[in-house]
Structure formats: C-alpha cells, structure tokens
Design a protein that fits this description.
CATH topology of the largest domain in chain A: ABC transporter involved in vitamin B12 uptake, BtuC
Oligomer: heterodimer
GO molecular function (chain B): ATP binding; ATP hydrolysis activity; L-isoleucine transmembrane transporter activity; L-phenylalanine transmembrane transporter activity; L-valine transmembrane transporter activity
InterPro entries (chain B): AAA+_ATPase, ABC_AA/LPS_Transport, ABC_transporter-like_ATP-bd, BCA_ABC_TP_C, P-loop_NTPase
Order of helices and strands of chain A: EHHHHEHHHHHHHHHHHEEEEHHHHHHHHH
Number of strands of chain B: 10
Protein name (chain B): ABC transporter ATP-binding protein
CATH architecture of the largest domain in chain A: Orthogonal Bundle
Pfam families (chain B): ABC_tran, BCA_ABC_TP_C
Keywords (chain B): ATP-binding, Nucleotide-binding, Transport
Strand order of the largest sheet of chain B: 6-7-8-3-9-10
Radius of gyration of chain A: 27 Å
Structural class of chain A: mainly alpha
Order of helices and strands of chain B: EEEHEEHEHHHHEHEHEEHH
Strand content of chain A: under 5%
CATH class of one domain in chain B: Alpha Beta
Bound molecules: adenosine-5'-diphosphate, magnesium ion
Number of domains of chain A: 3
CATH architecture of one domain in chain B: 3-Layer(aba) Sandwich
Helix content of chain B: 25-40%
Largest interface: A-B, 44 and 57 residues
C-alpha cells in the first residue's frame, strides 16, 4: 500500500543554483507588478502604470512573495520556519507554479485580447521570464517524489481523433457556405477539434505525471511546538481573517480576467500550503478548538458586508441562499444517499408560500403574516410536499427515486405556471409570478433601509445577507447535530448498505422519509428569505438545469464538487459554482464550455470533492494496515442486487 | 422457565420458491433457550436462503417463523427489534463508517433518541449517547476490537471484519444470533478464536444458529446440527447421528442422492 518515495530534483542543478533561480524568479514576478505590463488602457484594470500595481498585478505580488516566503521557510530561515513545518520543497514548487500560472495567464490574455505579443511592455516580459525561471529553479530543488509512476496511455482509438480534427477542419472549409450541411460540418469540426485537444492534453498530462512523479507524496507533520492556548486561538482567528479577506477579494473581483487569475493563484497556493504542512497545522488547531473555529467562521462570514459595498453584498446573499440549499440537499444526498434531482422545487415551495402570505398585492390570499410565521408556514408546507413526494417513492431504491424527483421538480414549476387564472385557478399569477413582495420589517428594523451598524453603512442587501446568514447558521447547526447522532448514523448506514442497515433494525423507509422531509423543510426556510430578497417569485427561478444557480443540477454539482456528507464542502462548492459562471460572462459564447472544462478538471484533480469527508481523512490508518480483502468484492456487488 | 415451554425459535414448514426453483423445501427447526444449533449442507443447499426467510429479507412462500411464541412479521427491522440478529456470509459492514460507528448503528433499535433530541441536545440526549458508546465499547472489547474503534471498517483485515459483524449484531441485544459462515476465509487459529467467541456469546444467554462448512467447528460447538441438502432438511441430531447418516455421507461425497446437486453459485448473501 505504501508508495516508495525519494527526495530528488527533477532537473539536476547545483543546490545553490536552484535556490537562487527560484528566489530570483519569485522576486522578478513580484517586482514586475511595479512596472507597466502593457501600453494601452484597453485591457481591463489598466495595467499601464509604473509604480502603482492594480488587479492582476497584485496577484503577481502575492504569488511572488508567497513563493519567496515558502522558499525561505523550507531553507529554515529563522522567523519563517512556522510557514513550512514539513520543510518539503514541493510546497515551493507548487507556489512557483502558481506564480507561473498567473504570469502565463496574464501574458496570454493581454496578448490575445489586444492582438499580439507586441502589446506587452517590459513589465510583462519580466513577469513571464520570472515565472518561468522560478519553476525551472524549483524543479532543481530536492523534491519529494515517488520512485516510479507508470506512464498511462489512453485508449489507442482516441488518438484517431488527432488526424481527424484537421481533416474535419479542411472539409468544413471546403464546403461552400450556402450548402445546408455547412453549419453541421462547422459544428462537427469544432467538436472534433475540442475532443482532439482534450485527448492531447490528457496524454500530455499523463506523460508529465510519469516524469515528474510528484502526485500523492505526503510528509508526516512533525509535532507542533507547545503554545499557550490563547495564542492558538488567536492563530485560528488570524487564519479565518486571512481566509475571509481572500474570499471577499474573489467575490469583489470586478472583471473576469482578474477572477481567473485569482482562482489560479488560490488553487496553487492552497496546494502549496498543504504541501508545506501549514494547512495540516491549521486543521489540527481547528479540531482542538471546535467552538472557537465555528465562531470565527461565522464572524468572518458576518464581516463580509462590512468590508464591501451593496453590489457585492447582493452577490454574497445569493451565494448564501444557494449554499444553504446545497447544504440541505447534502442531508438527502450526502448522508442518506438519496439522489434527489428536483430539490430546487422545495426552495420554490418555501418561496411561494412566503410570497403568498407576504401581503403582496398580487397574492390571492390577502394576509400579511409576520416574518417568523411566514418562515414556519414555508417550512411546514415544504415539509408536507417532501412527505407527499417521498412517501410513495422512497420505497423504491436507486434510480427510480432520481427519475421521480426529477419529474416532481418539473411538475412543480409547470403547476406554478398554470395556476394563473386561465389554465387553472388563480393562485400564483402564472409565469409572471408574484411581484412586489414587501420588504421585511422585523421589530422595526426595515430591511430596505440603509442602517449604520458599528459606524459602517449596511444597505438593503447587507441586511438580507445577515438575515440569510442566520438561516445558514441554523442549517449548519441542524446538519452538524443530526448528522452526528443516532439518526445521522442510521442515514449513513442506509447509504452504505441498505439491506445491512435494515438487518440492524433500521426502518429504511421511515428514515429516508425523515431525511427527505428535513431536507425539504430546510430548503423551504431558505425559500422564505429568498422570496423577500428577489422581490418577485416566478416559476422560472426553479428549474432543473439553467446557466445560473440555484437550480437542481447546480445544487447537486455543488454537493458533489464540494464534498458529500460534509458541511464546508457544499458551502465551498456552491460559492465556486456561483462565482465561476458569473465571472466568466466576459467569455460570452465560451462561458459554458470553459465552465464545463473547469468542472471536469476539478473532478479529475479531486474526485472526493474540494473538502473531503472526515471519514476519508481516516485513510491515514491505511498505511499501517494490510490491504482490505478483495476476494469477495465481486460477489458482494452481485448480492446487493439479489438480496 | 421450564423445558416444556415454547422454544425460542420455532420454524414450521418454511418453503421458499424462486420461480421454478425451490431453494428451501418444507424445513422445520427449533432453537431452544441457550442452545447452539448448527446448519450444514453443500453449497447451494439453501442455508442462506433459509436465514433470509427467518430474518424477513425474504417472505417465505409457505410456513411460519415464531420467535418466543409470536409469528415474526416479514420485515428485517422488525425481526431485529423482536430480538434476532444476524451476520452475513459476504461481509456487509458499513465500509466507510468507523468500527465504533458500525456497532452504534447496531444499537439503533435499543435507543430512542429522535431528530429533535439530536438538534436540542438536552441532557437526556447526552446520557443516551454516552450509554450507547459505553455499550458499544464493551462489545468491541468483548470481540477484541477495542483498539481499532476509530478505524474505518473497510480497513480492517478480513478476520476482524467478521468479528465486527458479530459485535454489530450483538449490539441489538438479541436473544438469538444467526451466524452465516462466520469462519469462512479464516485460518485455523482464527477459527479456534471464533469458537471461543461463540461459546462466550452463548454464555451471555444468547442462543446461536450457525451455518458452517467446517465440520470440526460445528461438532465442537453445537448441541444439535441440522443438515440441509437441496433445500430439504434430511437429518437433525447430535454429532453421532449426523456423522453416521448415509444420506449425509453421500451428499458430502457428491454421490447421487436422487439427482446430483447442481453446482450452484457460491452464495447469495
Ligand atoms: N433471490 C434469489 N433468486 C433466485 N434464486 C435464488 C435467490 N437466492 C438464492 N437463490 C438460489 O437458491 C439456492 C440456494 O442458495 P443459498 O441459500 O445461497 O445456498 P447456500 O447458502 O446453502 O450455499 C441457490 O440455487 C441459489 O441460486
Ligand atoms: Mg450461503
């Protein structure tokens, strides 16, 4: 089971040369930010100035400085040693690669958007050169590598795509544009080109992997230094402060190029900090001080509207709604293992219920319940729907449930469309939805007004953000407590092996219904807030798939991408899935293509999700155990169907 | 309780048909309080199917199963609730749960804590949870797995996975434990240890019905042994009765009985 490792450089360089090169490269990347990268202000952010870095240039500064800091830390520089407890040079390489990624992305996007390398000013060249130099140097450092990684070759038939792509291109161009097949051929040749590109990239990736041999090498963390507990608590708070700043920066990026650069930087820096052991240290601390961690996390989240303006508070509120619903879905999918493809409908039920009792003039029910009562109504109605859908379907196993829930999601939307007074009784005002939902006013606190909280002006979206954060906190609390209880264990047991779970005395149907109802109820609560945030609820907000979240497909993607069965996973996954399509709008036609590619890359790199389950973390036990029995595996698979 | 009262488990005339195949044919069997009963037979004889009929996984085509005098409903969780626990021939642990959590799942029927209790976490919740953990740790100590409590079930070696299945089954405080080939894949030492474990379980007042291939194991352990061939119980009795029965001998030597035993798939559970 244990992989053999060695500590050798990829490129044989004298130790001092490698260190110097890496350091110089990192310095050059950071220093380039003080120079002009391009001569026109056409590129977003205006990178033409000397001495005053903006946007992408700040990312270069961060990348360069972090690389340098990690280099010095692994060298054992006094005062910095805490940053690299493992002393692994891999961390330096990842950071340097991050710097190169930011540099390469900046340089290519400048030269493609402005038309040619001629648009680069000296700063741009220093940036690119520094990035390359840093990675070359870091490849010369003694790295933790596996001794042997076999070269994987893709299915030979896939390579037929490589010659097919140019043939398709020629064919598409040979056909006169007025022929009816011309658009078909163009589309076909485009698809061929993309497929061929993907094959080429994948194979190159395998080749690089077999040469670099860097994957899956973890150094054990040395025991930490004894610190007084107040220092440890401060460290947690500081870490959350940094994290909150980083996330706020990402949400606040005001043009797509900056966001992509930011994502590249974050991805590589997280890898670097994981390699250096700093994240491991932090995780140990957070486990030691659970309540402090939870408190710090919520304080960091609550500080968001105090750091930024209304525009981003609106984005953040929508992220929070999406993330909260994703966490609710994680009870159903991640804990109980029920594939629900129509989950967004429960958000819709909650929102419609709240809208109907909100006192909106378009609502046929002319009552205005106080918000707390509306929340209870939304939660209750949603739960009833959950039970009504669940009761007949949860006796089925596996794929049936997915199909029925998919159907229910669409039935909900279409019903809301048809309860319009013409094709049905007028309840929901049809596809126009229920508009003019009044602003909330809780105990005299008017959500539509700007309030000064602690000297900082918090506007409408800031108010709703803070309210939604309370709902998120509620869902986190419910998830954490129920997930780690007799009920939660029963859900996980059902997910793992329903037959065995029933043989242990678990009433599978009842518990699945409970998961379904609880999930529906929590989504319903989120819906009641959402109705007020969006002013209007329309059926189209609650579809199965759409380019923008929340919809059932995105919710499921957030759960799987983030990490099934965890709390922070869906929250992180939802944040990413909300921001990526939103910030990629500048790619217009290619938006969905790039988004899809990003998802594929993410799932390739981390199939277990961004934040894997604690249970998976227990795999460290695997090193000192013999391999689990494999002999019975095939028969077990067979018998699951039979029993 | 006198010996004349109803037996713990009373199976009368259980038949299980799958389409044209009669996997279990009119089998009756009793297990008394504190007994260890063996069930042997060639592969495909219907032993696992018989267990599935007892535990509600299958609804028998004919016949009735009584436990402590009442007919068992054919629902696995109700059977466990009534007091019959089982293990599986092909280990079916909750692979991604820890060893301790597996046993805690086994406590499910003997605890009441619901969803509101879990959310509110009143003192009663903590009390019940602590009690469950204590009981689970006791069982892990009993089966010799206490030091592995925090390991994932799937990372245990084979023999320990079998032990964990037993610990998990015992967690429901059963009156009768059904073991389906508990020593399959074990080496002789582990088999010896398993024997000790079964005796220890019986000494705690739990009756045991065990399917096995290992004759030595069965005859060391069991008060009575029933032999199943092609779905029919051909003989039942003590060691001498079974060993000297010529139908048993011919079944195990593979000589024709009426028609030869088909080479059925190894197992269904
Ligand atoms: N669900 C099922 N459907 C059809 N046939 C089954 C099913 N379960 C078991 N059988 C058949 O019943 C017979 C007895 O199997 P089983 O009880 O597993 O035998 P044993 O445990 O004694 O080796 C076999 O022929 C098997 O194929
Ligand atoms: Mg069997």
């Amino acid at each position: 089971m244990t992989t053999r490792t060695e500590t050798t450089p990829v490129i044989p360089l004298p130790a001092t040369a490698a260190t110097t090169l890496t350091g110089l490269g990192a310095l050059a990347v950071a220093a380039s930010a003080a120079m002009s990268w391009t001569w026109t202000s056409d590129f977003p952010g205006d990178l033409t100035y000397y001495g005053s870095p903006v946007g992408l240039q700040w990312l270069a500064v961060a990348a360069g400085v972090l690389t340098l800091a990690l280099l010095l830390a692994t060298l054992g520089t006094p005062g910095l040693r805490w940053a690299a407890p493992t002393r692994s040079n891999n961390a330096v390489l990842y950071a340097a690669t991050g710097a190169l990624a930011v540099a390469a992305y900046s340089v290519t996007s400048i030269s493609t958007e402005l038309g040619g390398l001629a648009n680069l000013e000296p700063g741009g060249w220093v940036l690119a050169g520094g990035g390359l130099l840093g990675v070359l140097g870091a490849l010369g450092l003694p790295l933790d590598r596996r001794t042997h990684v076999p070269l994987r070759i893709l299915d030979k038939r896939l390579f037929l795509l490589l010659p097919a792509a140019p043939v398709g291109w020629i064919a598409a161009h040979a056909i006169p544009g007025d022929k009816p097949v011309a658009p078909v051929m163009t589309a076909l040749s485009g698809a061929l080109a993309i497929a061929a590109g993907a094959v080429l990239l994948l194979q190159l990736g395998h080749l690089a992997n077999s040469q670099l041999r860097l994957g899956k090498v973890d150094r054990p963390l040395p025991a930490p230094r004894e610190l007084p507990s107040w220092v440890e608590v401060l460290l947690i708070v500081a870490a959350f402060g940094v994290g909150s700043y980083a996330i706020t920066f990402g949400i606040d990026t005001d043009y797509g190029e900056l966001f992509i650069g930011y994502l590249l930087l974050i991805a590589f820096m997280i890898a670097a900090l994981a390699g250096s052991g700093l994240l491991g240290r932090l995780r140990a601390l957070t486990l030691k001080y659970r309540p402090v961690t939870t408190g710090a996390a919520f304080a960091a989240a609550a500080s968001f509207p105090f750091q930024t303006g209304e525009q981003y508070a609106s984005v953040a509120t929508n992220i929070l709604i999406f993330a909260t619903v994703a966490l609710g879905l994680n009870i159903v999918v991640g804990l109980a293992g029920l594939l629900d493809l129509g989950y967004v409908a429960f958000l819709g039920v909650g929102a419609y219920a709240a809208a109907l009792v909100s006192g909106s003039p378009a609502s046929p029910i002319h009552v205005q319940l106080p918000f707390w009562a509306a929340v209870i109504v939304g939660a209750a109605v949603s739960m009833v729907f959950g039970v009504v859908i669940g009761a007949p379907t949860l006796r089925l196993r596996g794929d049936y449930l997915a199909i029925v829930t998919l159907g229910f999601g669409e039935i909900f939307r279409i019903t809301m469309q048809n309860l319009n007074g013409t094709t049905g009784p007028n309840v929901t005002n049809g596809s126009n939805g229920i508009p003019r939902i009044p602003e909330l006013n809780i105990l005299g606190f008017d959500f539509s007004q700007t309030h000064a909280l602690g000297g900082i002006q918090i506007g409408r979206f800031g108010n709703y953000y803070l309210l939604m954060l309370l709902v998120t906190a509620l869902v986190v609390l419910v998830f954490a407590r129920v997930g780690n209880s007799r009920i939660g264990r029963a859900w996980i047991a059902i997910r793992e092996d329903e037959t065995a779970a029933e043989a242990m005395g678990i009433n599978g149907f009842r518990l699945k219904l409970l998961a379904f109802a609880l999930g529906a109820c929590l989504a319903g609560v989120a819906g009641t807030v959402q109705a007020h945030v969006t002013y209007t609820v329309t059926p189209d907000q609650y579809t199965f798939a759409d380019a923008l979240p929340p919809n059932s497909a995105f919710l499921l993607a957030a759960v799987i991408l983030g990490g099934m069965g965890t709390i922070s996973g869906p929250l992180a996954g939802a944040t990413l899935l909300f921001l990526i399509p939103k910030k990629l709008e500048f790619l217009s036609d290619y938006q969905l293509l790039v988004f899809g590619a990003a998802l594929i890359v993410l799932m390739r790199v981390r199939p277990e999700g961004l934040i894997p389950n604690r249970r998976r973390q227990l795999e460290f036990h695997e090193a000192d155990e013999p391999a689990p029995p494999a002999a019975d595996d095939d028969t077990t698979a067979l018998t699951k169907a039979g029993a | 309780m006198t010996t004349t009262t109803a037996p713990l488990l009373d199976v009368t005339g259980v038949t299980m048909r799958f389409g044209g195949l009669t996997a279990v044919n009119d089998v009756s069997l009793t297990v008394g309080e504190g007994e260890i009963i063996g069930l042997i037979g060639p592969n495909g004889a219907g032993k696992t199917t018989f267990f599935n009929c007892l535990t509600g996984l299958y609804v028998p085509t004919e016949g009735a199963v009584r436990y402590r005098g009442t007919v068992l409903p054919p629902k696995p969780h109700l059977v466990t609730q009534a007091g019959i626990a089982r293990t599986f021939q092909n280990i079916r642990l909750f692979a991604n749960m820890t060893v301790l959590e597996n046993v805690l799942v086994g406590r499910h029927t003997r605890t009441r804590e619901g969803i509101f209790s879990a959310i509110l976490r009143l003192p009663r919740y903590h009390h019940a949870e602590a009690e469950s953990r204590e009981k689970a740790m006791e069982l892990l100590a009993f089966t010799g797995l206490a030091h592995k409590a925090d390991h994932l079930a799937r990372n245990l070696p084979y023999g320990e996975q079998r032990k964990l299945e037993i610990a998990r089954a015992l967690a429901s405080d059963p009156g009768l434990l059904l073991l389906d080939e508990p020593t399959a894949g074990m080496n002789p030492q582990e088999t010896r240890a398993a024997e000790e474990l079964v005796f220890a379980i019986r000494d705690q007042g739990v009756s045991v019905l065990v399917i096995e291939h290992d004759m030595r194991f069965i005859f060391n352990l069991c008060d009575r042994t029933a032999v199943l061939v092609q779905g029919q119980k051909i003989v039942e009795g003590d060691r001498a009765t079974v060993q000297n029965d010529e139908r048993v001998i011919s079944a195990y030597l593979g000589a024709p009985l009426e028609s030869t035993t088909p080479a059925a798939p190894e197992d269904t559970q």
